[in-house]
Design the sequence.
């Protein structure tokens, strides 16, 4: 292993693994390799019993001296490794591998060229002309198996990614292939026979030649793939062959080729990034193994590059769009650490808003998984992906599918990233220094000059290795991660703000603009909803400086439609009620998460809510959002002035009169909550002669007022409750009665635990059980009705003469028929 | 089919009825072989068969929307209804040998009945067997002549006189025999089928006379002989068992009823049927003694009720109603369930003027239900629960099949039926739970099926709610449902959801209507109509101003944006009227001294004004309602 140290960590691992001379290294490095290669379960190192492993003195010393190198061993998550690599879990591929190897040995035993008869194939095949054939072609059956293997593995892999329809299509495809093979078989056998029908067969053959070549290619693909999987290092050249096959004109072959390559690459790509050796390194003398490894790696890389280029080209063609995207996504998901990942990412983000739903969903889920599994790539890809999406949004002027921004919700921002780590690092450094000092002291005592120089060289090399390692590994330190996170955040918020600004812009412009021209296929403001959701979620990460701007935006958006009230005749660009409600909601959430530290006036949002309540329409607007706004803006608000609270109370009561039980209930719950908090508002429950003493400046209630403070609600009485207590829904009627009795009942302290959202969900019809409340109850009939309705005795007028005439006619007819029958009967007998 | 086979079958039929039943269920084809044997049952039984076959499929109602069927909720009762309706004898009556020439007394009633029922080939065998058995007793050559009885006008005349004046039982027996022959005339091969006795009718004059005479006089005669008054109930009939006269008269009554039912079932002319039905209705009490016949009668009447013409259908219904009144305890359920099923079954069959027919059917069914609210209540709640189940499935899955089922004629008619039932009875009985459930169901339907194409269904839903609200005095908010319809005008061809749910349905409007101005007018008129009904109900309620707030706001908004002058005028007028109403209530309200929690005073508020109902807006509402009703009739 000495020489391999020179070539950097990467090579060390490989060479060590490939030369199992030093068992200790195998033990350590093998494990480390396992750790790195997470996705395809790596092959277990040869099972060597613990006691058989002998450590050479040199190795021991090395480890002892450089404990920090070995520290990771103690930190290894053995449970996870066992789970990943333990013998109990067998992937499908493993099984096939096993089977295949078994078969191979079996075949070898029998000798090549011998008849290979699978138990399944023992049955003869009857051809069309009625002759029986026993299958004897070893090669053919093997090939057929291989290809089904391939197809099946493909199918299995696909299943993770594909949606149902595609899976079905895939299954159909593989089935078709199998069928075709079956069909083919007798033909070929017949051909081999060289019977008199040869002439006929020749024709058939011609017709089938196209299919046959296809068949052959498929077989070849399968063969190559199998070879590659069984021994990648020896057969690395096959990659190129498959790639060549992918240039075929037949789309099916190309697709199969791409999928096979995907399977192969997924399996053989190592758990580290390959760095091609520099010229200087190439000049150096290296061992045979290292050379072999280098060659292998460079070949692999080249092939991979070619494959990716192919994919990226094909991805743009509509025929291959889905399949290429699937390959790209799978690769990015499986090997996000490997070379060329940036290119993959670009391709994925480019498709994130694809009109094809399958493609879009694939891309989105890939990006999501990148965000949620940062450990695989150390977070670098997160930053890049977010940046790319931001650029994408910018380029498309926010006319993208909502999914493309929704993925941001999967990003996790760690607040205290690095803080404890920093301390750790500090300690580590300190310790390290100490150790080094100690070592040096010791060494000074013990060692001679030669050793000293060697030591120096060693440390130099070590530094180099560490630097290299850092460059290659994907465990960035805390500082870097913090930096990356900041970048991610800024990109995310940039996107969000862009969306907000764009929405504002379109609303402002919309009066002059031709609404059709800019109307994207995703609706008027496709990105607004996910953007608002995201803002609400990440608001804590937002810099306080920006919050002011954000609030301004939200304010403008929330009030958007009331501004341009007159000119919106055919303007579809306006925000919907739900969107505006969401804006208000986000504003409140932002304020609350910042602990109301900002001095922003939320009054405008209340005004908006006050008006939006009237504009709400159950089918069109989301009742859930409304209920949430009621909860957050009204129920959770601590101190409200009386005028405003009264206005809301009145409006909610009016609202409850006109809408379904879910909406009514959530409104009533809010109303009750408001009345509980604002004792003075309970004046609304009393009919004070003369308009009440507390009524403000406005003496008369204005039901259509747009400003809660100007509605004069305190001057009115909640007469709605009187009607609501007649509501058909028992819960609402009892609620209304309770509210109207709030003033008089003594138990004023009880607080309703139900939130408006809860009420809305409970009373929505989807949840309704439709069980009559108490079925067993006996009916109490309030009034006995007259037992018999006398009028029922009506007898229709029947004209007897007419009737008798009809009867006569009827009789005559019947008689005739009878006579006829009789005559016929007599004739017969 | 040898003798043994036949004997075995006979034995099985008598003693192993459950086996027989199962056989019928399992092997419908097997049954068909024997169909000839009881030709009369054919039609009914085949229907039965189908129902039985379908049943096992419908055992798992939760799984599949297809499997929940509204009309099958009471399925289990169905089996027992019609079985063995014909098991006992139906033959000619035994005529007294002393009074009538001929000596066929030995041949028993039951044997004859078997003969009459048996098919041709079997009859021959039977005859041979009988001949052997009775060789010593009966001289075949002689009897053949004497058995053939021809009814001539003169004989009939004397018979009639005898019955009329002396209530002679013997004459009545003869008459009834001829009557039976007349009823069956042409329907059974009399010449060969019953060789032992053969009643023949001379000419059409006698035919008509015997029919009319028996139908008109039989009931009266029976009552006279038994000494019953016209208004005697079924208990009296059941008590008759102790009456010695009854023993002799029972077969006569039975024969009469049976023959009449045969007539009703088989006659071709509707007037004849009507006549038969009315006469049957008169003597309905007698059915108390013959439960099997009663079941058959119910079946026939229901068939006539559903399929018959106006008068016939009505008469059939009256019969049913009488049955359910007279035999309340046993037959009410049967009647109700079967009528309910027939009604729902009929909903799906498109017919000419089906709307009126369905209305009649619905009203008559409601009338029947109102006879016994307690019993109908349980039925209604079962049925409504079923409706709710279907709806819930549709709401949760949005499955196309399920949704289609909701806007099918069957579903809506079923809702309609129960709404009317509740509306008819809610004032007298406490039907609150039913009201609640049905309102939720209707709301669910309105919520599930949206879009301009379902305007009619939406309007229907709101009308139901209004009807329920008006009759029960409960507040049911409809504003949100109504105001959605105002928006319909702005929607253009962007309705993709509707395209998916394309199905032939009366509730759904053709697509090309949607853009027409007519459609928009229709929308607005419907809005105004249902709102007027809603407001008219609450126009004197103390919270009317608040109730009208949001609708008025929306209407104003519509008024500002609409550019159709005709509609604008209508809307404007409506707004003005409602506003004057608001103002009026507000003025009155200012003088009120009670608080909202004083429910009693609130209920008393403005009751006086309501009684007078002279306010202009009241009249306005009324005019709109009347107008809407008028246009509906025109259609």
Sequence:
């Amino acid at each position: 292993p000495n020489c391999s140290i020179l070539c950097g960590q990467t090579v060390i691992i490989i060479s060590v693994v490939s030369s199992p001379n030093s068992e200790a290294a195998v033990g350590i490095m093998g494990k480390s390799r396992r750790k790195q290669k997470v996705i395809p379960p790596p092959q277990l190192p040869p099972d060597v019993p613990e006691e058989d492993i002998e450590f050479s003195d040199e190795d021991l010393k090395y480890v002892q001296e450089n404990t920090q190198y070995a520290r990771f061993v103690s930190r290894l998550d053995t449970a996870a490794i066992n789970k990943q690599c333990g013998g109990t879990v067998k992937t499908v591929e493993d099984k096939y591998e096993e089977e295949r190897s078994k078969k191979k040995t079996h075949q070898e035993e029998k000798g090549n060229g011998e008849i290979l008869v699978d138990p399944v194939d023992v049955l003869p095949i009857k051809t069309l002309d009625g002759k029986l054939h026993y299958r004897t072609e070893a090669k053919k059956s093997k090939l057929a198996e291989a290809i089904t293997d391939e197809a099946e593995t493909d199918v299995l892999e696909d299943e993770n990614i594909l949606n149902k329809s595609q899976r079905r299509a895939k299954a159909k495809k593989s089935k078709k292939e199998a069928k075709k093979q079956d069909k083919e078989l007798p033909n070929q056998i017949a051909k081999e026979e060289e019977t008199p029908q040869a002439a006929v067969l020749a024709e058939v053959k011609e017709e089938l030649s196209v299919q046959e070549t296809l068949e052959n290619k498929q077989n070849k693909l399968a063969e190559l793939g199998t070879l590659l999987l069984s021994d990648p290092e020896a057969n690395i050249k096959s990659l190129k062959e498959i790639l060549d096959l992918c240039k075929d004109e037949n789309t099916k072959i190309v697709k199969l080729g791409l999928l096979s390559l995907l399977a192969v690459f997924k399996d053989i790509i190592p758990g580290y990034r390959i760095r091609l050796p520099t010229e200087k390194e190439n000049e150096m003398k290296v061992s045979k193994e290292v050379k072999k490894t280098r060659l292998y790696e460079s070949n692999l890389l080249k092939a991979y590059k070619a494959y990716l280029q192919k994919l990226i080209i094909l991805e743009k063609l509509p025929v291959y769009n889905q399949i290429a995207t699937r390959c790209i996504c799978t690769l990015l998901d499986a090997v996000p650490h490997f070379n060329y990942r940036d290119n993959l990412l670009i391709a994925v983000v480019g498709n994130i808003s694809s009109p094809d739903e399958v493609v879009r969903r694939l891309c989105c889920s890939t990006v999501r998984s990148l965000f949620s599994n940062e450990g695989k790539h150390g977070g670098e890809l997160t930053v890049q992906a977010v940046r790319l999406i931001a650029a994408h949004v910018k380029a498309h002027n926010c006319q993208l599918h909502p999914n493309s921004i929704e993925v941001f919700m999967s990003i996790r921002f760690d607040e205290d990233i690095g803080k404890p780590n920093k301390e750790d690092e500090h300690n580590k450094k300190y310790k390290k220094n100490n150790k080094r000092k100690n070592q040096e002291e010791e060494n000074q005592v013990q060692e001679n000059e030669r050793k000293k120089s060697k030591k120096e060289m060693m440390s130099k090399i070590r530094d180099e290795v560490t630097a290299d390692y850092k460059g290659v590994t994907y465990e960035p330190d805390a500082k870097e991660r913090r930096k990356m996170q900041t970048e991610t955040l800024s990109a995310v918020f940039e996107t969000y703000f862009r969306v907000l600004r764009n929405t504002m812009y379109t609303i402002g412009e919309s009066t002059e603009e031709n609404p059709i021209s800019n109307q994207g296929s995703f609706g008027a403001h496709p990105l607004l909803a996910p953007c608002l959701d995201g803002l609400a979620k990440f608001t804590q990460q937002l810099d306080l400086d920006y919050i002011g701007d954000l609030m301004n935006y939200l304010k403008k958006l929330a009030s958007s439609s009331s501004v341009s009230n007159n000119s919106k005749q055919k303007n579809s660009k306006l925000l919907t009620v739900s969107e505006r409600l969401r804006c208000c909601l986000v504003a409140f959430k932002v304020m609350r998460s910042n602990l109301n530290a900002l001095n922003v006036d939320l009054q405008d949002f209340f005004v908006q809510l006050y008006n939006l309540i009237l504009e709400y329409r159950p089918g069109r607007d989301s009742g859930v959002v409304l209920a949430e706004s009621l909860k957050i803006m009204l129920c959770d608000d601590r101190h409200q002035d009386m005028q405003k609270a009264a206005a809301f109370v009145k409006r909610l009561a009016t609202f409850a009169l006109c809408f379904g039980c879910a909406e009514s209930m959530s409104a009533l719950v809010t109303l009750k909550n408001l009345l509980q908090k604002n004792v003075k508002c309970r004046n609304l429950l009393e009919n004070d002669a003369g308009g009440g003493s507390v009524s403000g400046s406005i003496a008369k209630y204005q039901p259509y007022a747009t400003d809660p403070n100007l509605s004069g609600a305190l001057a009115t009485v909640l007469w709605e409750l009187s009607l609501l207590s007649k509501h058909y829904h028992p819960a609402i009627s009892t609620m209304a009665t309770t509210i109207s009795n709030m003033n008089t009942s003594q138990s004023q302290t009880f607080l309703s635990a139900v939130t408006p959202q809860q009420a809305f969900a409970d009373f929505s019809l989807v949840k309704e059980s439709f069980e009559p409340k108490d079925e067993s109850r006996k009916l109490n009939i309030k009034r006995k009705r007259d037992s018999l309705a006398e009028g029922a005795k009506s007898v229709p007028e029947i004209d007897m003469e007419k009737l008798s005439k009809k009867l006569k006619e009827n009789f005559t007819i019947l008689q005739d028929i009878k006579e006829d029958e009789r005559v016929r009967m007599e004739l017969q007998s | 089919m040898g003798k043994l086979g036949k004997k075995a079958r006979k034995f099985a039929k008598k003693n192993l009825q459950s086996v027989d039943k199962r056989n019928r269920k399992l092997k419908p084809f097997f049954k068909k072989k024997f169909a000839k044997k009881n030709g009369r049952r054919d039609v009914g039984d085949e229907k039965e068969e189908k129902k039985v076959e379908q049943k096992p499929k419908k055992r798992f109602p939760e799984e599949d929307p297809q499997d929940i069927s509204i009309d099958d909720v009471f399925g289990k009762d169905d089996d027992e209804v019609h079985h063995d309706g014909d098991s006992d004898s139906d033959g000619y009556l035994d005529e007294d040998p002393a009074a009538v020439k001929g000596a066929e007394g030995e041949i028993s009633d039951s044997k004859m009945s078997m003969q009459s029922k048996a098919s041709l080939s079997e009859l021959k065998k039977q005859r041979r067997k009988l001949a052997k058995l009775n060789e010593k007793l009966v001289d075949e050559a002689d009897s053949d002549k004497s058995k053939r009885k021809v009814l001539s006008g003169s004989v009939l005349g004397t018979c009639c006189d005898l019955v009329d004046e002396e209530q002679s039982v013997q004459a009545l027996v003869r008459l009834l025999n001829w009557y039976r022959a007349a009823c069956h005339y042409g329907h059974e091969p009399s010449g060969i089928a019953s060789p032992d006795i053969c009643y023949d009718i001379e000419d059409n004059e006698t035919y008509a006379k015997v029919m009319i005479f028996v139908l008109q006089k039989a009931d009266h005669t029976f009552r006279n002989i038994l000494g019953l008054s016209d208004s005697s109930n079924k208990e009296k009939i059941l008590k008759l068992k102790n009456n010695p006269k009854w023993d002799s008269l029972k077969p006569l009554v039975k024969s009469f009823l049976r023959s009449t039912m045969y007539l009703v079932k088989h006659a071709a002319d509707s007037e004849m049927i009507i006549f038969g039905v009315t006469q049957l209705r008169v003597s309905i009490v007698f059915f108390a003694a013959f439960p099997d016949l009663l079941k058959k009668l119910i079946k026939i009447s229901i068939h006539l009720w559903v399929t018959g013409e106006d008068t016939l259908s009505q008469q059939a219904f009256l019969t049913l109603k009488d049955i359910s009144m007279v035999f309340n305890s046993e037959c009410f359920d049967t009647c109700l369930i079967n009528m309910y099923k027939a009604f729902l079954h009929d909903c799906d069959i498109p017919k000419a003027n089906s709307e009126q027919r369905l209305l009649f059917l619905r009203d008559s069914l409601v009338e029947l239900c109102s006879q016994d609210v307690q019993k109908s209540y349980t039925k209604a709640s079962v049925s409504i629960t079923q409706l709710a189940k279907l709806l819930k499935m549709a709401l949760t899955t949005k499955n196309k099949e399920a949704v289609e089922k909701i806007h099918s004629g069957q579903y809506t008619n079923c809702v309609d039926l129960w709404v009317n039932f509740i509306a008819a009875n809610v004032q007298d009985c406490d039907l609150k739970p039913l009201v609640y459930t049905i309102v939720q169901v209707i709301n669910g339907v309105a919520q599930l099926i949206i879009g301009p194409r379902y305007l009619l269904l939406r309007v229907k839903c709101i009308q139901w709610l209004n009807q329920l609200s008006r009759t029960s005095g409960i507040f049911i908010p409809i504003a949100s449902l109504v105001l959605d319809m105002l928006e319909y005008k702005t929607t253009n061809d962007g309705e993709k959801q509707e395209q998916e749910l394309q199905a032939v349905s009366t509730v759904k409007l053709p697509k090309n209507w949607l853009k027409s101005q007519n459609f928009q007018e229709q929308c607005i008129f419907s809005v105004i109509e249902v709102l007027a009904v809603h407001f008219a109900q609450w126009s004197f309620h103390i919270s009317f101003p608040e109730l009208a707030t949001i609708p008025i706001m929306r209407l104003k908004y519509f008024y500002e944006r609409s550019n159709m002058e005709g509609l604008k005028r209508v809307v404007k007028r409506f707004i003005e009227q409602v506003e004057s109403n608001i103002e009026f209530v507000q003025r009155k309200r200012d003088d009120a001294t009670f608080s909202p929690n004083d429910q009693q005073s609130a209920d008393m508020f403005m009751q006086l004004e309501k009684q007078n109902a002279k306010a202009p807006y009241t009249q306005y509402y009324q005019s709109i309602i009347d107008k809407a009703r008028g246009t509906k009739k025109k259609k």
